[in-house]
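Morning!

This is the sequence you dropped in the shared folder:
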Amino acid sequence: MVLGVPTMVVFGLQSLVRGDYSLSSFILASAFGLSVGWYALGRMERGILVYRINAMLYCILLVYMLIIGGDGGSKILWMFTFPLIAFFLIGKREGVLWAGGMLLLGAALLMVAVPGLTVYPYPKDFRIRFLTIYAIVTAIAFWFEHFRETYRAGMETKCLELETESRRLELEIFERQRSEREKEQAITQLKDAIGQVRVLRGLLPICSSCKKIRDEHGIWNQLEAYIDKRSEAKFSHGICPDCAGKLYPGFLD
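The structure's back. Tokens below.
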């Protein structure tokens, strides 16, 4: 549309200057319809209706140019653009109907005499070549649209796969981060537990008589002092019944 509308306006004004008011009116009306359709596309959820209206306006313009011929019948060559536009705007399936319908309509106007309608006198061999080339252009346009749709479908599928893989990787990263946090938390808790628990290990050299314990420096320490320095245990002094009987026999009685 960016190039089509200005081009149609130029040709419309050119036809107006040359005095071809009918053709100028058709071209400018089509250009106006394309402009309105372009404006409406940005404000509609589905643009297929706009495309159909524009295709119909362009179809009417091309039929009119086929009928009048103009410039030695050269204006009919504009019909070769219709299959490309129809397939691109409307799609492969509906584009076949539009392009095929234009082919049948053009063949009827070129090969069959319509009462009350005067068609530019194209040579017979030109009519046959024109219809043949139009059919070839339609087939090529169909193939290009089929290739474009297949490529687009493949790209959409690939994008969906990439999006799914991206979500999977994000979830995997999240799970790994959570696992790392849980691991760090467990390590921290384990360090705290180890810091709170001090355990005596190995053989302790202890005096058989006074029960003092010899440390790694060769110094003999009271049992309570040795254990107090190397563990979290605290002593609360009391006296057992046997010792109390020996030390305070009369008091216990």
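Headline: The longest strand covers residues 213-214.

More detail when I'm at my desk.
O.
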